[in-house]
Amino acid sequence: xxxxxxxxxxxxxxxxxxxxxxxxxxxxxxxxxxxxxxxxxxxxxxxxxxxxxxxxxxxxxxxxxxxxxxxxxxxxxxxxxxxxxxxxxxxxxxxxxxxxxxxxxxxxxxxxxxxxxxxxxxxxxxxxxxxxxxxxxxxxxxxxxxxxxxxxxxxxxxxxxxxxxxxxxxxxxxxxxxxxxxxxxxxxxxxxxxxxxxxxxxxxxxxxxxxxxxxxxxxxxx
Length: 222
Fold this sequence. Notes:
By secondary structure, the protein is mostly helical. The protein is built from ten helices and no strands. The protein has helices spanning 9-27, 34-41, 45-51, 55-78, 84-100, 103-112, 118-141, 152-164, 178-191, 207-217.
């Protein structure tokens, strides 16, 4: 009779994914070996292979787990009863919040998906396209002529340009964290540079209180 999985199996898999994502983010996927992943996890290589059959399966799991969470949260917000502007703000706040807790996975998704096999890469990219499409619908809803708005996709990509590359310049422990930068992004995108207020100040974004409210009402999916 086959032996069942232990109660800690899934926890161990998540732990391995987190350590592997950290290595891939710092060293790059091609430069990281399974030996290095095993060492970072405090496991033997044989034990590591019990959880993941090869380095590619680690990359697939990191990318799919991260993008699936993004797709789930935008689907949840799209089904919410908020106004069009509230919905787009919440999209921005929640995506930035998700990135804050998954910076290594986000960097891997950004830099290393190209190393996946074609079918695996397309599966991940299809989910990314779902996220972008949901944002584009939210952007279009705020513009005249919605929903047939030719600029919705380019505007959405400009928005993601602000969000996706935060990890390249935001310093851990710096004056601005993800919670304070999310309303700045929303205010800049929705109202222009004159609408941006310093974190903690008054303004349309109401930074700290509004982000906290979104976080409390929208717990992360695991």
